[in-house]
Amino acid sequence: QVQLVESGGALVQPGGSLRLSCAVSGFSSSTSWMTWFRQAPGKGLEWVAFIRERGHFDPIFYGDSAKGRFTIARDDAANTLYLELGSLKPEDTGLYYCAKGAPNVVDYWGQGTQVTVSS
Fold first, then answer.
1. What is the DSSP string of 88-111?
2. pLDDT in tens for each of the 119 residues of the chain?
3. Which runs of consecutive H residues, i.e. helices, occur in 1-119?
């Protein structure tokens, strides 16, 4: 049974940082594309970052809003996906989801974790 369980969301001040985790079970994340999405209040779903399966020469891509501030990483031994959020802005507020699949083809979703950036 495939499960994706996100954690790490919190209320943080502008300029702060957070690390989101996505615990994966039912498959090995190292053999799958994995994507982080977010949804801001009142807005559509936006892909933030994705990582391709182990072995790809160029495995990581970031959306425009994430470039230079966020880092996607994977711990294959722990079967866990991470998203490090830095230099956070109020517009980064939203529900963050991890997903199995590419940004345009998702097989499974997690339940999401809330990130709120506010002073």
1. --GGG-EEEEEEEEETTEEEEE--
2. 999 999 999 999 999 999 999 999 999 999 999 999 999 999 999 999 999 988 777 789 999 999 999 999 999 999 999 999 999 999 999 999 999 999 999 999 999 999 999 99
3. none
